[in-house]
Here is the input.
Amino acid sequence: MIGRKPWVPWIWLSPALLLLGVFLVYPVADTVRRSFQGPRSEGWVGFDNYQFIIDNPQPFVADTHGAILNNLFWLIGFPLIVVPLGLVLAVLTSRVRYEAVAKSTIFIPMAISFVAAAVIWKFMYEFNPEIGTANAIAGELGRNPTAWLQDTRSPTGWLTKGTPDGGWGPLQVNNLALIGIGVWMWTGFSLVVLSAGLKGISTEVLEAARVDGANEWQIFRRIILPMISPTLAVVTTTLVILALKLFDLVWVTTGGRFATDVVATLFFKEAFVVRDYGVGAALAVVLLLAVVPVMVLSIRRFQFQEEIR
Amino acid sequence: MASRTMNNSVPAAEERPAAGGRLRGLLARMPLHLVLLGFMLLWSLPTIALLVSSFRAPQEISASGWWTALTPPWDFTWNNYDAVLNQRGMGRAFINSLLITVPVTFLVLLVAAMAAYAFAWMQFPLRNTLFLVMVALLVVPLQMTLIPVLRLYTQLEIDAEMPIIGGRIFGTNSYAGIWIAHTAYGLPFAVYLLRNFFGALPRDLFESAYLDGASDVRVFFRIVLPLSMPALAALAIFQFLWVWNDLLVALILLGDPDMAPMTLRITNLVSSFGSQYQLLTAAAFVSMAVPLVIFFALQRYFVQGILAGAVKG
Here is the structure.
């Protein structure tokens, strides 16, 4: 608008800025402050709460090391499965006529809540092989039933039907079972985004390569992969943030029991069950610090997109 | 936006079968079809198991696998749905979910569109910095904000009964409280998405409208919003599903069981009726019904939203 008064933009922005300030900016600052205070936010305690996370003095009540390791395991394992799987499925679905149906089928779990997914998988992972689908299939393969969500053995311990070995850190049967739920829920996202990326590649380039005698693997490796690497970056970033902030999935399935706690669930327990706001806030700050590098990366990418706009 | 390329021809690498090679082509592609169909089966199996089980009698669910119900004699029943909808307060929870979700979706769209219009078409100091801060807020873990918000709500509590819909006027256990909180949490993504869409609208339109003396309000309602329907639709679907599927915010801000949405009610069912699968499966399916209907009816917009907002964590 010509001759717009200087205060006009702020009127349009004010509801959003007010809400963001009250519900996101202020809480972040407040949480940082509380992380240096006692359990009831009384008195300053310096870095004691962070020392608590490092020393892990109550491994059976609040296993801070276990939670951080589990989060790391998710951080690496979850995108490492979901991104390649989505890419393979995107390539495969692009070659069949029932592409739309195939994509919808894999995408549907994205639309449902973690709560409903938890019920679905509690049922799939049910111990009784007469009821639980996973154990029924395992039974057909000659295995005794497994308590999928409770079993803390390593996969090798599971394969050799051993007793809990505990030497594998977060590499536990139940963590893998939980990641399995995550993969079920999020592969559709990876598939849909990567599939759109694939379609952005011009057919002429691919045809030209074929005319020049490139085989399908070379085309994938030398043309498709480099050309969708920005899309791969977007998908991976999203999944990494998701894995870092992971809460609902663990909370509604195991509640963090059986050594499946991640930082966000442990934070929740400290803050709302144990009622030690200090340690809870420190855990939240750790989570935020872990997200910062990812945040910087997405801002860089955003600025880059602005420049080429 | 990548979605614009969705309708382009597929970069299919499929070999063109020579004359009479049709069957051979089909055979050569069998592994592809088998792998894909295998994945499709694997991905739908858990949901099918839930659906089939929700129609079985309690004694059958706990005695035999859901797959045994697929062969005759079929013996399905609506009883579980009856029990869930009538006896466990699920009907009320369903209404609560709507009472929470619909206003939030509307509020997010309105507040975000206003901010996005300013970011896209107005000049003011710190414009880019403010926008970057907002993009950064996309990754703040929601849990982190709950304690301060809870304390704030306790201080600002207005402890009188809200007419018609119930609950307090404001504070914890108030619909207004959860509307505002959810709206705030949805804003970073919504403003980001709409700002990008508004910014891509043709400049000429705005210039001629401004020259004709149109006010910002007029331009916003007559040009920006009507032209942005696809983005608004995608955003509305997303926002609706996020809030409908939310557990955490409801868990913290709504302690009153009469105000609990579906997700919270089902979580409580899980802890109190851990092994009564007939109730759990039916309840879970009721909560999934709305998202699934929305998904199938508006799939195109849903996918657009995913593509436009691929940075949301």
Q: What stands out?
A: The two ends of chain A are 23 Å apart (CA to CA). The first helix of chain A runs from residue 8 to 34.
